[in-house]
């Protein structure tokens, strides 16, 4: 069964600190992996998209890594800000005729002053 | 419009009633997706439209759920005889082509079935 699991389920950090969120998947065949940020009451917004040939990708203070061999990804947030408080969702796309995505349950991050 | 829009933003209904949710994708986007997000859970794929092709309905949880899309424009998701377990946020997303990498999500419709 294709699955995407994220950890931790929730996380509290102090403003200015770094943190790393984890994503493990069993989706096969694999096409790409995405990280989304979802603010409370809003739709998800794409942060990064990585194919199997990419190991790391950055978007400002967000850096995603991918190990296609171990089927693991991480999202590292540097110098956190209060506005980083949100749910971070890992999404994996299997290859096929269309872009059907499998979503993780997300990690809820709270950044405190 | 600048992004994907959905209406209504909130909907409260009584068990057994029918509801209709609307999604306006980004103009020119050929692919449209509906997802459901229950409280504290991940997104569940419901249905996918690509141009004039037959939609992928594999994610619809029951025959009470149906969706339509007119060409490459607005889509409606209909839930008949609503149940309390249908309470969730229903999200719509669109992409320019089926191979496009970025899905653009709407703000969602929050459905509460009493």
Describe this structure in words.
The complex is a heterodimer of chains A (113) and B (114). Chain A is built from no helices and eleven strands. With 113 residues, chain A is mainly beta. In chain A, strands 2, 4, 5, 9, 10 and 11 form a six-stranded mixed beta sheet that branches. In chain A, a hairpin with a 4-residue loop joins strand 7 and strand 8. Chain A is globular, with a radius of gyration of 14 Å. In chain B, the strands form two sheets. In chain B, strands 2, 4, 5, 8, 9 and 10 form a six-stranded mixed beta sheet that branches. In chain B, strands 1-3-7-6 form a four-stranded antiparallel beta sheet, with no helix packed on it. Chain B has no helices and ten strands. Chain B starts with a strand and ends with a strand. Chain B is globular, with a radius of gyration of 13 Å. Chain A binds chain B through residues 4, 32, 34, 41-46, 49, 89, 97-106, and chain B through 4, 31, 33, 35, 40-45, 48, 50, 56, 91, 93, 95, 98-103, 105-108.
Question: How would you concisely characterize the structure shown here?
Answer:
The complex is a heterodimer of chains A (113) and B (114). Chain A has 113 residues and is mainly β. Chain A is built from no helices and 11 strands.
Look at the helices and sheets of chain B and give the structural class: mainly beta
Oligomer: heterodimer
Radius of gyration of chain B: 13 Å
> Residue-averaged pLDDT of chain A, rounded?
90
The run of helices and strands of chain B is: EEEEEEEEEE
- Biggest pleated sheet of chain A: 6 strands, mixed
Explain the layout of strands and helices:
The complex is a heterodimer of chains A (113) and B (114).
Chain A: E1 4-7, E2 10-14, E3 19-25, E4 30-38, E5 45-51, E6 56-59, E7 62-67, E8 72-77, E9 86-94, E10 101-103, E11 107-112
Parallel strand pairs in A: 2-11
Antiparallel strand pairs in A: 1-3, 3-8, 4-5, 4-9, 6-7, 7-8, 9-10, 9-11
Chain B: E1 5-7, E2 10-13, E3 19-24, E4 31-37, E5 43-50, E6 65-69, E7 75-79, E8 88-95, E9 104-105, E10 109-113
Parallel strand pairs in B: 2-10
Antiparallel strand pairs in B: 1-3, 3-7, 4-5, 4-8, 6-7, 8-9, 8-10
């Amino acid at each position: 069964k294709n699955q995407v699991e994220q950890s931790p389920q929730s996380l509290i950090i102090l403003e200015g600190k770094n943190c790393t969120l984890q994503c493990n998947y069993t989706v096969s065949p694999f096409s790409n992996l995405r990280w989304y940020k979802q603010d409370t009451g809003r739709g998800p917004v794409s942060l990064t998209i990585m194919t199997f040939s990419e190991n790391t990708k950055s978007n400002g203070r967000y850096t995603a890594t991918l190990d296609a061999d171990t089927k693991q990804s991480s999202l590292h947030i540097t110098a956190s800000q209060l506005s980083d408080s949100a749910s971070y969702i890992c999404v994996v796309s299997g290859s096929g005729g269309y872009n059907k995505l499998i979503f993780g349950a997300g990690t809820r991050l709270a950044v405190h002053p | 419009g600048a992004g994907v829009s959905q209406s209504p933003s909130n909907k409260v209904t009584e068990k057994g009633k029918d509801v209709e949710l609307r999604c306006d994708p980004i103009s020119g986007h050929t692919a449209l997706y509906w997802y459901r997000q229950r409280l504290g859970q991940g997104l569940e794929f419901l249905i996918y439209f690509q141009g004039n092709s037959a939609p992928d309905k594999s994610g619809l949880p029951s025959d009470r759920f149906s969706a339509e899309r007119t060409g490459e424009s607005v889509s409606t998701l209909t839930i008949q005889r609503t149940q309390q377990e249908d309470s969730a946020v229903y999200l719509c997303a669109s992409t320019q082509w089926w191979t496009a990498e970025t899905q653009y999500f709407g703000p969602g419709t929050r459905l509460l079935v009493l």
